[in-house]
């Protein structure tokens, strides 16, 4: 093939790799609230039989399609236990695109501790434009619920959407998906912002910013 053709093929593969955007979403909250189960439900489609406390971080990825664009949602399932997370905290927050805070609806302490998790997040210079959502997990344990109506005003006051759900109950799986899909939709809408990030990482890459007509996000 001619050098021109070679150059063209390099250009198109470069464009492809840029166009497959990766959204980094971190999942934060006390140990045992179900962060691993929620991320597994979204990326693997089922509830794990058995989990162990996460050490450091587990990455799980899922490719999703939004309005014809394939996006890789990279979920960082973080450790809730201090001793398993302390060396990793800087990595969690670096270049994060969205944050999911999780508490256990049957455990008041996990709800109260949200304040500390939010402060940790703010302390790592996570910009206000990074979307954050709140998830109350284990709603299947209906007779053990401790955190009830107070979750909504808390979420509102922090400008977060609230999802009350269960990683365990298969009837809730769509609701679990919608946590991550709603974030992916919001991030997709911040297109220019993410393309600028790509440009910064590699000075040679120049992307013309699409002036798309305002799209109808399905979420
Ligand atoms: N009933 C019920 N149990 C759940 C649910 N989600 C998680 N669990 C259970 O809660 C326990 C902890 O779940 P994990 O997902 O490992 O918790 P984690 O937040 O990842 O904990 P760390 O990794 O230590 O931070 C496990 O025994 C799960 O089976 C749920 O929706 N309902
Ligand atoms: Mg875990």
Radius of gyration over C-alpha positions, nearest whole angstrom: 19 Å
Under the CATH scheme, which architecture would be assigned? 3-Layer(aba) Sandwich
Helix content: 25-40%
Largest sheet, spatial ordering of strands: 2-3-1-4-5-6
Residue windows where pLDDT falls under 50 for at least 5 positions: 199-216
Report the sheet-strand fraction: 15-25%
Helix/strand order: HEHEEHHEHHEHEHH
Bound ligands, named by name, code or SMILES: guanosine-5'-triphosphate, magnesium ion
Describe the structure.
The protein is an alpha/beta fold and 219 residues long. The protein is 39% helix and 21% strand. The chain has helices at residues 3-19, 35-44, 82-85, 89-93, 108-112, 114-123, 151-157, 173-189, 191-201, and strands spanning 21-28, 57-66, 69-78, 98-104, 132-137, 161-164. Strands 2-3-1-4-5-6 form a six-stranded mixed sheet, with helices on both faces. Strand 2 (57-66) and strand 3 (69-78) form a beta hairpin. The longest helix is centred in the first third of the chain and has 17 residues, at 3-19. The structure holds guanosine-5'-triphosphate and magnesium ion (MG). Guanosine-5'-triphosphate binds at residues 31-37, 51, 53-54, 79-81, 137-138, 140-141, 166-168.
